[in-house]
Design goal:
CATH class of the largest domain in chain A: Mainly Alpha
CATH class of the largest domain in chain B: Mainly Alpha
Shape of chain A: flat
Number of strands of chain A: 2
Distance between the termini of chain A: 66 Å
CATH architecture of the largest domain in chain B: Orthogonal Bundle
Order of helices and strands of chain A: HHHHHHEEHHHHHHHHH
Largest sheet of chain A: 2 strands, antiparallel
Helix content of chain A: over 70%
CATH topology of the largest domain in chain A: MetI-like fold
Radius of gyration of chain A: 32 Å
Mean pLDDT of chain A: 86
Shape of chain B: extended
CATH architecture of the largest domain in chain A: Orthogonal Bundle
Mean pLDDT of chain B: 88
Largest interface: A-B, 89 and 84 residues
Oligomer: heterodimer
Strand content of chain A: under 5%
Number of helices of chain A: 15
Number of helices of chain B: 16
Order of helices and strands of chain B: HEHHHEHHEHHHHHHHHHH
Strand order of the largest sheet of chain B: 2-1-3
Distance between the termini of chain B: 64 Å
Chain lengths: 461, 424
């Protein structure tokens, strides 16, 4: 029985349990008017439904997660015994072959009879497993529903029990976010550790040469690969620097104008328009950077006699900066608006002009918040992927010349992980090491941003 | 008393006043020009995409009189017959004066390989037509299409042009005979990806986007709302809930590509889920949108005034009843607005999906959550990488569609907010 059908059957059973439970509770309450039911009939139904669905669904999920690897191991037992000692890689290969045999997507004309036997065994056991799962799950559902149904009586505290279950579910959902973080840290960390077993940590962090093109197979031509992250990091900072050089002045000035000078009507039209800039998908910016901005800058360079690479850091940084403008402006806008009106009035009262008030009173007061928002924008720029993948280069040049092509952390992650993958090669693992670097840097920027805002925020009352 | 004190304060102020007002005007000018520059860029972006893309909605087609030769077609071999030969013969018939083999080959290439499929569809649906001569419109090759639309200019030297003078004259002949026209590009909306620009469409990517978003919405909305309800209504103030809060805020700022790495390591390598499937894409985007939805839902719950809670509790509702009967319905519009904005971001997201193999070249339109699929932004990325000139146009057109979808979603969010938001 396919899992989806099974799940819908369980849900159907649980709906049935709901109606039955509700009916019984209702019957009880009308039958003896002297006894008062503890909860309203719906809660008895819901309790029955929960006891019907939850255990059965848990069984389905756990079974699905565990069954596959268990069955594979059981099916491969015979093969492994016959082949003798195998490395984990070889076992994986055999398992893949076996899976392909099971799904029937085999192109090879010669099929190992041993593997074929294993595949047959696997599909046989899979069928049994599916059937067993269906029986177990449906029986559990029915038993759960029956147990509650039989216990329905006026003194059963159904509402409290239902609410407890719901509260537990809510709590689990809220811890989900923590699990995501743990998942990110663990997955990136494990692969990075494997990478650092092959490439020393300090070679990675301080190495000056990045050329990950190494032979995956022994007979492949390719350099031995060197993994010095400095040029990649330099490229990232160069492009982010250019982006911030655009985004900070433009974003900040827009925010100042919108919050201090603009009338309510102007503000109401321009602010959403600026936010469109933030809503445009980054792949669109990437396309624009590669197709319009980069050639434009190169032509400009040709006209002025400069040699500009067609994948110059300038083009990618420029477009990225424009993408970040609304980010800086909306965050700074909030901060500037939070400065109390009394401070402006005080400054005007002393005879300062508007711009003097802004420069000497409002900006210093809002500075921590503005610094915080700029730090957040930097972390956004460092982690931005599509613009640089489409408009920046692949070769890691150690340069600060914005007219040359540089590469970034995100570009390298994408190029290393799209296409050929082998999870033992440092080439693939390097992507995870870069990912960890990215994670750590952006996390640190966020934490620092929050800290700056909290620590230096002026409290006005 | 010294001389200085003879000058009053007012005089000293008015001496510098002109300069200060100049500064004031300059500052103001900086502000307005920053805004104008940003908006100009937005206009430039949209205008250049539209200018490049609008032509893709029409496709050059050629009218051929195809003789459905019974010698080639047979009711029993409709799936394998040589339709390409019929198309080529029909094309050659338009240019009776052409003799040399080489020219004939070039004429054959004026017509897209998709013409054979169109012919096959026609014959398969109406086998009784075999033996007759039918006029049918078939797509032209992408080079012809580009030439007709003016993307390959006539005034450059022949050697630098993808369309030779001879081809150009043939095309002009066809136009003069009313046999070559720009027609609405149905393939763009009905086909999956293709290596041939004139046959490539966004249907596959759109279906992939739909499946992916469906998973994302189904998972992230309930979980996000549940988490928000717990944190806002139940959570005791302690270290653990503090940790969760900090965590959610940090997750919202993590680069999306890191979520892709997580998906690759956990869903593909650890859990062995199918590569390139919209199921995995949806899971990854769920993790990414969850913080957005939690934050929006919490803000929405916060805006429900405490008096509502107190009133409900006061008449004897349990805490759960208060929430499900009163707080949630009032907070729902805000939560839905947050969800739509989160979905819009997920729809435009590309980078994490590259990590989990949704960049494969996939011709078939996906039919289920586990089929290999791609999504609209990734399709844009793939087309942007293609060397053919005609793909630039199609990329821009796909971007236009994507932007329209995003605009519609955001408009829906704004509408929801304006219609249902209550100020207490």
């Amino acid at each position: 029985m396919p899992p989806l059908l099974l799940v819908s059957l369980v849900l159907a059973l649980s709906t049935l349990a709901f109606w039955q439970g509700k009916r019984r509770a209702f019957a009880l309450s009308t039958q003896a008017s002297s006894v008062k039911m503890h909860s309203r009939p719906g809660y008895y139904g819901m309790l029955a439904a929960l006891w019907c669905a939850l255990p059965a669904l848990t069984i389905v999920v756990v079974w699905q997660l565990a069954a596959d690897s268990l069955l594979t191991r059981m099916a491969m037992d015979g093969v492994a015994a016959a082949k003798g000692a195998l490395t984990p890689d070889q076992v994986n290969l055999l398992v893949n072959d076996m899976r392909n045999l099971v799904t029937g997507s085999v192109v090879d004309s010669q099929i190992d009879p041993l593997l074929q036997a294993a595949a047959d065994r696997y599909s046989g056991m899979l069928r049994i497993s599916h059937m067993a799962l269906a029986v177990v799950a449906l029986v559990t559902a029915a038993v759960g529903a029956y147990l509650v149904h039989a216990r329905i009586k006026p003194s059963l505290r159904a509402r409290n029990q239902v609410e407890l279950v719901i509260e537990v579910i809510l709590t689990l959902c809220s811890t989900f976010a923590v699990f995501i973080t743990i998942g990110i840290v663990l997955s990136v960390l494990f692969e990075s550790i494997r990478f650092f077993q092959q490439i020393p940590f300090f070679d990675f962090l301080f190495g000056l040469k990045w050329s990950p093109q190494m032979a995956i197979r022994a007979d492949q031509a390719g350099s031995s690969g060197s993994f010095g992250a400095v040029p990649v990091l330099m490229g990232t900072f160069l492009i982010s620097g250019i982006a911030m050089a655009i985004a900070v002045p433009f974003g900040l000035m827009s925010a100042i104008y919108l919050s201090e000078y603009a009338g309510p009507k102007f503000r109401a039209t321009v602010k959403p328009l600026l936010e469109i800039l933030a809503g445009v998908p980054t792949v669109v910016y990437g396309f624009f950077a590669a197709l319009v901005v980069a050639p434009f800058i190169r032509d400009l360079g040709v006209m002025t006699g400069l040699s500009v690479s067609s994948e110059s850091a300038l083009a990618a940084g420029l477009v990225m900066g424009i993408m970040i403008i609304p980010f800086v402006s909306s965050l700074s806008d909030d901060v500037i608006n939070a400065v109390p009106q009394a401070m402006r009035d005080g400054s005007y009262g002393l005879g300062a002009t508007k711009s003097e008030t802004i420069k000497l009173v409002i900006l210093p007061a809002a500075l921590p918040g503005i610094v915080g928002s700029i730090l957040l924008a930097v972390s956004r720029a460092i982690g931005e992927t599509m613009i640089v993948v489409m408009a920046a280069g692949l070769a890691a040049n150690l340069t600060v010349n914005p007219l040359q092509a540089v590469t970034t952390v995100t570009v390298q992650i994408v190029t290393l992980l799209v296409g050929d993958q082998e999870f033992d090669s440092p080439k693939t693992l390097a992507a995870f090491a870069l990912g960890m670097l990215l994670f750590v840097v952006t996390l640190a920027l966020n934490v620092v941003a929050l800290y700056v805002v909290r620590k230096y925020r002026e409290e006005y009352e | 008393m010294s001389e200085n004190h003879q000058i009053s304060t007012m005089d000293r102020v008015s001496v510098g006043l002109a300069a200060r007002y100049r500064k004031e005007r300059r500052f103001r000018l900086f502000g307005i020009s920053a805004i104008v520059a940003s908006l100009l860029f937005l206009a430039l972006l949209l205008a250049s995409i539209t200018a490049k893309g609008y032509t893709a909605f029409r496709q050059t087609e050629v009218l051929l009189d195809v003789y459905l030769d019974p010698a080639v077609l047979d009711v029993h071999n409709l799936a394998t017959a040589n339709y390409a030969a019929l198309v080529r013969d029909a094309a050659l018939a338009l240019f009776s004066q052409v003799e040399s083999r080489q020219d004939k080959r070039i004429i054959g290439k004026l017509i897209s390989t998709g013409a054979a499929y169109r012919l096959q569809d026609l014959v398969t649906s109406k086998p009784e037509l075999i033996g007759s001569t039918r006029p049918i419109w078939v797509p032209a090759d992408d080079e012809v299409d580009m030439f007709v639309k003016g993307h390959i200019p006539r005034d450059v030297p022949e050697a630098e042009r993808r369309v030779s003078d001879k081809q150009a004259s043939w095309i002009d002949q066809l136009v003069a005979a009313d046999r070559l026209k720009l027609k609405f590009n149905t393939a763009f909306f009905q086909a999956g990806d293709s290596r041939e620009p004139e046959l490539a469409g966004i249907r596959g990517a759109a279906a992939g986007s739909m499946f992916t978003l469906a998973i994302t919405l189904l998972l992230s909305f309930p979980v996000g709302v549940a988490a928000a309800v717990y944190l806002e209504e139940f959570a005791p103030k302690n270290r653990w809930t503090d940790l969760i809060e900090v965590n959610i805020n940090n997750l919202a700022a993590i680069p999306s590509i890191v979520f892709g790495l997580l998906g690759l390591a956990v869903f593909l390598n650890f859990m062995n889920l199918p590569r390139s499937a919209s199921l995995v894409g949806g899971l990854v985007l769920t993790l990414m949108t969850l913080p957005t939805i939690i934050i929006a839902s919490r803000a929405s719950l916060k805006s429900v005034p405490p008096s509502i809670r107190e009133a409900a509790l006061g008449v004897g509702a349990s805490k759960m009843q208060t929430i499900s009967h009163h707080i949630l319905p009032l907070a729902m519009p805000g939560m839905m607005t947050g969800a739509i904005i989160g979905m819009a971001r997920a729809l435009g997201e590309t980078a994490p999906l590259l990590m989990i193999g949704m960049v494969a070249f996939i011709v078939d339109v996906p039919n289920s959550f586990s089929d290999p699929a791609t999504v609209l932004p990734v399709q844009i990325f793939l087309w942007a990488d293609s060397p053919e000139r005609a793909f630039v146009e199609r990329t821009s057109a796909a971007i236009m569609i994507l932007l329209l979808l995003l605009l519609a979603m955001n408009a829906a969010a704004v509408f929801l907010r304006n219609k249902f938001e209550r100020r207490w």
